[in-house]
Amino acid sequence: MQTVAIVVSLTLTVIAIPYVAYAVSKMLKVIRVGGPATGRTDQPVARTVTMLKETFLHTRMLQWTYVGLMHWFVYLAFVILASAVLAGYFQLFDPSFVLPIIGHFFLFEWVSEGIGLLGTIGIIALIIVRQKNHPRGLGRRSRFFGSRFWQAYFVEAFVLLESAAILFIRGAEYRLLLLEGSEYGNRFHFPIAGYVGDLLFSGLGEQGLENAIFAIAMIKVSLAMIWLMIIASNLTMGIAWHRFTAFFNIWFKRESDGSTALGGLEPIRINGKALDMEALEDLEEEDFEKLGVGKVEDFSWKGILDFTTCTECGRCQSQCPAWNTEKPLSPKLLVMGLREHAYAKAPLLDADPETLTDEQKRELERPLIGDEDLFGVIDPDVLWSCTNCGACVQQCPVDIEHVDHIDDMRRFQVLVESNFPTELNNIFKGLERKGNPWGMNPKHRMDWAKDLDFEVKQVGVDVESLDEVEWLFWVGCAGAFEDRAKKTTQAVAELLNTAGVDFAVLGDGETCTGDPARRAGNEIVFMQLAMENAEVLKETKAKKVVSTCAHCFNTLKNEYAEFGIELEVVHHTQLLNRLVREKKLTPVAPGAGAAETGKTITYHDPCFLGRHNKVYEAPRELLEVIPGATFAEMPRNSEKSFCCGAGGARMWMEENLGSRINVNRTEEAIATGADQIAVGCPFCRVMLSDGLTAKQDSGEAREEVEVLDVAQMLLAAVKRDPSEAAADVVKEAEAATASAVEAEPNAADRANPDSISDTADAGPPADTHTKPEEVTGTSEEVPKDDPAPTSQEADEKAAAEHDVPLADSGAAKEAVDGGGASTQASREELAPEAETTDAAPDEPASEKESSAWDNVGAVNTDLLPDSPASSAGDGAPTPDPEPEEGDVTESETEAVPASDDGPGSGDDADPQEASPAEEPAPAPAPAPETEPVEEDAREEESGEQPTASATPVAGDGEIVAVEDAPTTEPTSPDSAPLSEANPSGADVSEAATSLGRDDETDTDGGSARS
Ligand code: SF4
Ligand code: SF4
What we know:
This protein is mostly helical. 45% of the residues lie in helices and 4% in strands. It is built from 41 helices and 13 strands. Bound molecules: iron/sulfur cluster (2 copies). Residues 319-322, 329, 331, 386-392, 402-403 line the site of one iron/sulfur cluster (SF4).
């Protein structure tokens, strides 16, 4: 037996080791096909700590506690197995062999046996979990849908046998030592294996036991070698390879501080260097094709390592809002598809074309993005279904960076191939020409403040710079133009004013942060907007910024450092929470409005506030201190929150596939029994309001239910008639506030402290501040002798200082009432006020508006899409309904089919996926009627100074001619293959230099190649 065991074991080893070494070299060759990955080796100590924590402590796996724990047992057993296999080689020659020094040390023995047992239990549990969640019963709802089962079964069987083998071989060792009368042959040294030995080997004599040990050692070694050879033959077998590659994938993750690849998006890198406008102008001809990822080898080597490491666990898929609403996108299947293609294509890149088979040639020429007819690797519907919600990245136990990869592919489609959903064309135009995705006239940016009873300071008008105030209130495009978001803006301004916070706004000096452009792949428009904003922020000496929009918040906080501006950015819920803690705002009012006693509130986490920036507690704390309200959590909350469907520029795209994400989320909110659905982002508000309206229309939601921003609810609770602030109510509120302060959350995440709390870049949430002045600067801004007022005092003070009749102030009531009413509005009513500017000169601006930001408004409104967001349900701007005079050139030059030919509007699902929902989403409602031109005329008559006219301005203050420009409409791959549509990249730099909204002589909808 011994001879056989030795021959078999050594023969397999001699074959397996070189074979595996060859496979590893092949794998490295594939990974090296990728481009450079920048910034992946800084902070080596921190990276090593993160890697050890995530692997040995399974911190990210334990986001799913039970499964994570079972996998942890299996993982530890696998580590022990390595030493057991090593010991097996020696046992082939000496059945009594034990590891030197520790071999009979009781703790080592106990741990080995314990882990062998737990590993066996763990793998059995995981086998059961896989079978219970098998797609045979659950279909698409299974997270294993699309995973390769034979590979999973193979790995499970191996782990089961090897884990059990530890106990078997030790059981035989125990019996042998017992027979030999060794001091170690007892249950103290074999606490578990002793029972196995008695059960299996009690009848064997010494020779029999030795043969059993030889046999088991042979089985251990042989199984390990066979396992290695099989995975070496399958380099795309991530379920096995991740046991080796995960260490590296985690070590080289994007963020050296251990956080996930969320928050800001990585810039485009050309040859490892971040792209900026200067670099874009100097781009070499051959580098134009590197604007984004157009071929699998355009991914960085880390990207290909990501694909290699995917375990096919499907956690990402289970959380993906697109997948959960029957769209073809699954982050898991996307990663698997890229992996298969990378490993199929990479070896062919250096091959002699003459030697390639037809199939290999086809693989080599396969488009990365393309539908079934084009044999594309990723279907366009898959690519454009992503909301950038980050759930996949948050969930992935091996730190795969899905969002970066998806947006890199979008960039190439937009910048190089001009191939993107038709609807995006309008927002690109609006962003380029008006600085906001709706294409609204910037001079209306201060309209929201008109109804307030106090003056909102505007930089360049009321204050010279932000040095004179504490906070810049970043209003955002939605906050300035979208009717319901304006209520949030008003509520926040009123609360800040009530609390005595000194703040100012930029007015029409503000433009879109560029989030929709960047997330849609239009990096050039994003860079242009970001540069423009960064310049303004520098000039105005901005340092501390508060934003009501989760997207603005994320972009300003995480992406503007690239443009040379470092800001302390907080979300309005963070700042308001701080003010409540400091008792500068005291919610006390029961009764009318959002804070009405007995109301149940639920909270929807905006993805770009929660998952992307880990702000979970501040809004919840605010809601929990509203007197009389009951807070009800949705099942999917915090880091497992479900997207509203608006991120990743999906707000402006039609949702034709599957069911609606916003309706799915609204149903969950309604199911909590909530009377009010609280949000912290204007995009979420639009989406959930739309979902609620749909459910109310169908009678599935109560008419009283409404969607409101947290700030509106707080305002309603803070602001009331002082006479109503009876002493007992004050006491109640103070007690509620005190309890909230007592329960001041630590920085830890609610669900998974390990995965989040160690993240340094969690921003300065109000709940984690230890020094109030760090956030509010209250030591300077608020006199020390202004004690935290009681609620009544606060009201009286506010009323006296700001002349605000609190009891019947319109803003608070309107904020609440308006919000409630708005939830009844149809989608088109949610869109910002339409602006018909065709053929009309820009309206005159008020003196206030014109002083500092004239150049911002110096654009030709004739050229813009006039309708605001369509009623399509996504807030998408309505494409120009009819060719207009000013669009003649555009329509003539467009080689682009109508929207239904666009990639985003097609019905083709990923052929490998389950088909999308059979019933498409409802057709878009008609667009809102545009605002009559007369408004312009009225304003003109008012004698206000124009900010721009059709007269050109050259240079400072001079009006520049703005002409319509041909617009590169999105094209389908059929109509505009790269080689035909974009034969040269020479015009990219021209586009780059002409994108400024002050010089719109050659704008093109955002494509670098027009
Ligand atoms: S970011 Fe969200 S929508 Fe996009 S793939 Fe990941 S989970 Fe799906
Ligand atoms: S990408 Fe990550 S979460 Fe998704 S299946 Fe692969 S390993 Fe699992």
